[in-house]
Amino acid sequence: MQLDLNRRSGVPMYRQLAAQLREQIVSGALAAGYRLPPERELAARLEVNRTTVLQAYQQLKDEHLIASRVGKGTFVASVESGASVGREGDPRTPRTTRTPAVVHTIRDGAAPASDAAEPPVIRPPWSVLFSDYSNRFTYHDIAEADRAQRGSGGRDAHVIDFATGSPNPADIPDDLLRAVSLEAFASHEFDGQPESPIEGFDELRDLLARHMRDRGVGCDARNVMVLSGSEQGIDLIVRAFVNPGDHVLVEQSTFFPALQTFRSADARIVGVPVDADGMRTDLLEGYCARFRPKLIYTIPTFHNPTGTTMPMERRRTLIDVAHRYQCLVVEDDAYGDLWYGSADEGRPVPLAGMENSGYVMYLSTFSKTVTSGLRTGWVVADPHVVARLAALRRMVDQHTSTSSQRICLELLKEGRIAGHVAGLTRAYRARRDATVAALERWAPDGMRWSVPAGGYYVWVALPDGVRSLDLLARCRARGVTFMPGGVFDVDETDDAHIRLNMVRPDAADVALGVRVIAECTRRCAENRSQ
Amino acid sequence: MQLDLNRRSGVPMYRQLAAQLREQIVSGALAAGYRLPPERELAARLEVNRTTVLQAYQQLKDEHLIASRVGKGTFVASVESGASVGREGDPRTPRTTRTPAVVHTIRDGAAPASDAAEPPVIRPPWSVLFSDYSNRFTYHDIAEADRAQRGSGGRDAHVIDFATGSPNPADIPDDLLRAVSLEAFASHEFDGQPESPIEGFDELRDLLARHMRDRGVGCDARNVMVLSGSEQGIDLIVRAFVNPGDHVLVEQSTFFPALQTFRSADARIVGVPVDADGMRTDLLEGYCARFRPKLIYTIPTFHNPTGTTMPMERRRTLIDVAHRYQCLVVEDDAYGDLWYGSADEGRPVPLAGMENSGYVMYLSTFSKTVTSGLRTGWVVADPHVVARLAALRRMVDQHTSTSSQRICLELLKEGRIAGHVAGLTRAYRARRDATVAALERWAPDGMRWSVPAGGYYVWVALPDGVRSLDLLARCRARGVTFMPGGVFDVDETDDAHIRLNMVRPDAADVALGVRVIAECTRRCAENRSQ
């Protein structure tokens, strides 16, 4: 056993000792069963403090490379006992007999030629290698959402798409985007500023803070961090705050990527019932007392998927309960700009505009008003939170694409985006009215909905006995898609509702689409009655 | 106890029952201690299957809302016992006496006026609310890296910056980027395609596959997914594959955001020793036998931070061991395009070009050759892996910014990027040579380094007794920064090395910068000797 410590190195002595022993154990130079010198003896031999040897041995014990038995001393552990530190029941079968290296020569990207004499390489056993979390993840609602969306979208002109949660391509302001992009890139303003601060360019944070003040949220640039879409904010907030086992309260049906993100952190998700006025805040105190949640995730305005908007009284209750239980609130406000009411009704004030002690973290995005292709959203939060999210983001994507930020800067300057949103709101209000009118005209008995005050979605309760997945299959056969309610449900079992994105289809298709859904619903109901 | 089940609803009966009981318990309508009817009795009363009641009760037991005692029946649990489902020792102190709601009126973004009669809201106890993981995270190397980097960068002209891991702003091809951006956005090619597929635009995936084939990696567009920087690939791969407790092998010193990402998944990170030829693959079999790692993360070419390049023989060994232990390999090749050798030396072939059964996942980026502001990288992997990463990415950022993708498309077309990289390589080779010449001229006894064949970094071993953090403090006082070795070390204890980004400073500053480091090193060594 050769050991050679450098007592003037910047690497602590115990680490040098552990590293040298580790290498000799792993390489086989010290065989399994080899008895290591007692700590006191080795310390004397190396002329180091006994603690140094103690720490080195402890580290190697933690790595299962050595083991002590009382009265017998310290031994090199066998590979088998070492191997047991891996996942129990690991079904991978290492081929421990040494086979020749499998190396291919690649020429011009042609498929590599395999040497026939070599034993074949076992292809990766994917289902074993994938993490438990990701195996569960794929199995769940993603696949379902995909099924609902496949074949929809702009490419197949025959589909009437109430499913997809993004704008109709025809509503994307291509000309405006082209104009601002050309301005953004013709300018020399950003030369020598190729990278952005993690939190985003100062000028953009400033304009976003102004945009937020227009919405009724008092904040300045220090409260704002530019995100690569508001979804990224949920992910960062979860990393920053949620420990495994923490409880998170959500509306019983909600934005499903948020559910997946909470699951990814092993949070316990508790659904709070929703009625026509959004989250049942009368129950909230009970839920907080029972579950002591770390945070409440809510979409109080033009809710996805239910289209509901929480009245001021409920908002006050929510904030009051959050304060008393020191529970954080994540307010997801992706749709807040798309309000179809009139001035005398009073525009909903965001929770973040009613609270200034730091409990509410506010998320929004340009994905619903301009295009999700920009991948630009933002969070408004206490500077403590902004700093923490920025630190965590270093290991994710560093900052939002510089080109996207430049485009958003130009969009926000001189109120160009406000003009676009005003026009979009007019068009969307008309589509909302058309959808509701069509529902009133065609809907069969037992189908219920409420009229959303803004946003994208109308949430339709199906007549008794009609299952959303059966209805979806029928409608898709007739070229109409929507999202089945189960996708959004905390328990993934709600088969009694469907979500219609009333602003996604071409305006001319809305009435026909609703009529097809109504007819198919009637068929489903008849089938159930037989 | 009023219960009203709808047997034709799409919501399963047991869920309806659980939801109604939950609401009554949480609202207090059913008080703590209330005895629920026995399962059989309730089933008869509701005319449902006994299993329905069993399932509903089980769900509520899992939520700690009800509890059974043998021989006594099933009772509503008290809030106290319910509250115990929260984190033990949760130091948040709910103010359970109801206080008036705290609501502010915001006008023009002014600070909200507080009603003096109301009890003050307790500000969020951040350190309690932050997750354990994020509290650890911030405390670790990020702060250190920040300290090393603060004040550096292009804005303070007096700093000679060997620290920052991105290009010198003067090396960013502003004119090329402006030209391709204007072309990209003037074109109508992407009208009506505002969003990208998760994996990236087909045309870009195709061009990246061609780029990879030029590097010796056989692949096609199906193997390529566009990322928002290659770091995002590490994050997605970790989510897809790493279970808590899985072992991950890395070079003993490595790209530190990768370490943070592995830690975020509660992986056990094991450092494999590195010498002048990179990872000690002679030890790899022993590490795999001992630890059965889920994956090996490696930077085989122009390693960060050590500047080493694995010879072909080691690459073959690594792949062979990975095959036999069915261990995945993440090859991080951020610097592979920046090779300073001559044609007869033979350019290093990526691991991904030597393996085609799916074990190697390859990551690269435009951040080191163009600008990290683009936030565009890519992964090359088996289509199974691409599909899984795409599914997981839905909850992160959906896809890479459309504008960044368009710019990269234009860059790759007609070999424009190849021309830029060729020029950059010439400039960087000269800076590498200048750095090495300065080290040879000025370095004090005991300072050691090897000459990197490409990439950004030269890794300098300090003379015995000189600590990297002491040296950094001295150098920063004289306007020179670099990264201390501990930032990259798996154990965060290496204080004996420093990393110099030899291509980051202005060419004219390299010699002066190295001379300052050499002089400060000599001072540190003298101080130690006294």
TrEMBL record, chains A, B:
<comment type="similarity">
    <text>In the C-terminal section; belongs to the class-I pyridoxal-phosphate-dependent aminotransferase family.</text>
</comment>
<dbReference type="GO" id="GO:0008483">
    <property type="term" value="F:transaminase activity"/>
</dbReference>
<keyword id="KW-0805">Transcription regulation</keyword>
<keyword id="KW-0663">Pyridoxal phosphate</keyword>
<dbReference type="InterPro" id="IPR004839">
    <property type="entry name" value="Aminotransferase_I/II_large"/>
</dbReference>
<dbReference type="InterPro" id="IPR036390">
    <property type="entry name" value="WH_DNA-bd_sf"/>
</dbReference>
<feature type="domain" description="HTH gntR-type">
    <location>
        <begin position="11"/>
        <end position="79"/>
    </location>
</feature>
<protein>
    <submittedName>
        <fullName>PLP-dependent aminotransferase family protein</fullName>
    </submittedName>
</protein>
<keyword id="KW-0808">Transferase</keyword>
<dbReference type="Pfam" id="PF00392">
    <property type="entry name" value="GntR"/>
</dbReference>
<dbReference type="InterPro" id="IPR000524">
    <property type="entry name" value="Tscrpt_reg_HTH_GntR"/>
</dbReference>
<dbReference type="InterPro" id="IPR036388">
    <property type="entry name" value="WH-like_DNA-bd_sf"/>
</dbReference>
<dbReference type="InterPro" id="IPR051446">
    <property type="entry name" value="HTH_trans_reg/aminotransferase"/>
</dbReference>
<keyword id="KW-0238">DNA-binding</keyword>
<dbReference type="InterPro" id="IPR015424">
    <property type="entry name" value="PyrdxlP-dep_Trfase"/>
</dbReference>
<dbReference type="InterPro" id="IPR015421">
    <property type="entry name" value="PyrdxlP-dep_Trfase_major"/>
</dbReference>
<keyword id="KW-0032">Aminotransferase</keyword>
<dbReference type="InterPro" id="IPR015422">
    <property type="entry name" value="PyrdxlP-dep_Trfase_small"/>
</dbReference>
<dbReference type="Pfam" id="PF00155">
    <property type="entry name" value="Aminotran_1_2"/>
</dbReference>
<keyword id="KW-0804">Transcription</keyword>
